[in-house]
Amino acid sequence: MTDPSVIDLPRRRVVAAIGAGMALSILSPFARSTGVEYPFTLGVASGDPVPDGFVIWTRLAPMAGQLTATVVVRWSVATDPAMTRVVRRGQKLADTNFAHSVHVEVTGLEPGRPYWYRFEALGEQSPLGESRTAPARDQATNRALTLGFVSCSHWERGYFSAYRHLADERPDLVFFLGDYIYDSSYPAGSNKIIRAHALTDISDLAGYRNRYTQYKRDPDLQALHAAAPSVATWDDHEVQNDYANRWSQDPGVDPALFLKRRAAAYQAFYEHMPLRRASLPRGPDMRVYRRLDYGQLARFHVLDGRQYRTEQPCIQPDGRHGGHVATCADLDDPTRTMLGWEQEAWLRDGLRQSPARWNVIAQDLLVAPLVQKDLQTGAQGHWTDGWDGYSATRTRLLNHIDASRVPNPVFFGGDIHSFWTTDLQVANKTVATEFVGTSVTSDGPPYEAFKAILPLNPHVRFFDSRQRGYVSVTLGQRQMETRFQVVSDCRDPAATVSTLKRFVVEDGRTGAQDA
Ligand SMILES: [Fe+2]
After folding, report:
1. What is Dmax (Cα atoms) for the chain?
2. How many Å lie between the centroid of ligand 1 and the Cα of residue 442?
């Protein structure tokens, strides 16, 4: 099927334009005999499956040559990995507006089955990708669904073995829950740096593109995207640490200026993720909260925890946002919101009307309240950048889940670089289950210090911050099994994987049980 927006440029003109741009470039190891540099250096990806299709993505980014011309990219989707039975094909123009990224919303496929896809441009073929459609809306599938979720992959802290091992599981769907890239870098010469960012701190479109390009060249990240469709949301580091809406974490930054940075960061996110047109950025605004339905088995509510928030409460005397505070006047203010009023209402509606047995809320942060001790002073308090800074939103949401009897609500989260299993409670009654995954590479919080606060937080069922990895989930009609997967050493590109802990949630019974 050909995309109607496509105009077939004369190939001669395209190649001539590339040739001119390439004249001074150094040929990469991927260069083919055609003399045109290999353009698919960032791999392929698919995402946001529905019963009759999914998005397929690539971006033309030759190693050395800067593309300036508009390029025709052909795509095809087949029912077999040899690509002999092609069922959909088309072409799309890649141009400088979105950094030669290509997002194709493939439709007309059959529900609940695997497909393979590939792109062609400039006489070259992309790597092969595998994807899978969602089950049909009325399908009461007996087949268990396999999922993975990941977060927090700081390039400089190690290798992405967690991605490789999750790819090896060939899950039906992968959730990227934020900090897919890091805007900030360790100081040059730091012994923390296992492999360095190409640029240090970034704040404009060229900088963010550079960062994604570097991460996307990672073979383990490419393997994961090529193995399974994904659903991505963001946390803070896709823009800046602890930013909130239009406010930088740094004191005194003009919100209008910060929105320019946010626009650049959001655009680069769009350019590098398999997102639908519904997520096209408009200036500093971009819709990433959305729902996915997997037949009658599961509804996934994917949240945006950053774009619409009220400013963090308890802004510190030096003007810095986000931090450890004992309390302050606006901490529990019900007029404050983490998700924004529209998204809060959208989430409540989606939960209340859900046709699914399982309701997974996929988002960026630890949801459970957490009484912490300041690492320096030992004073008890809360971290205001997370849900603890927005307790009114959490209370509204958990009350709604309780009152509406939402079937099997389970939260997935990240950000805190450690594994957590918690009971989410209203008046000491557990109304939802929470699993938070550790980081892919980023440093975890100090284990002993956090272990020491667990008695203050009896709703926490499990915590470990000592290892890096991901979370693997098998979701059936009767139970959800969750496995906390850890890699042997993220500084080792050949790290092995093992299971640290398993939990089961049974249909109709809120809360995780040891498995
Ligand atoms: Fe992080």
Report:
1. 70
2. 6
**What's the CA-to-centroid distance between 181 and ligand 1, angstroms?**
9
Q: How far does the centroid of ligand 1 lie from the alpha carbon of residue 236, in Å?
A: 8
Distance 503 CA to ligand 1 centre (A): 24
What does each C-alpha distance from 45 to 55, 70, 325, 379, 475 come to in angstroms? Answer: 8, 21, 41, 46, 23
User: With a threshold of 0.90, does the pTM exceed it?
Assistant: yes
Hey, what CATH class is 145-514 in? alpha beta
Give the β-pairing of 409-413 and 419-426.
Answer: unpaired
CA 315 to chain centroid, in Å, comes to: 28
290-294 and 298-302 beta bridge pairing: antiparallel
pLDDT, tens digit, for every residue of 285-339? 999 999 999 999 999 999 999 999 999 998 878 887 778 888 888 888 999 999 9
- Segment (H or E) for 498: strand 497-506
CATH of domain 20-132: 2.60.40.380
Residue extents of the structural domains in the chain: 20-132, 145-514
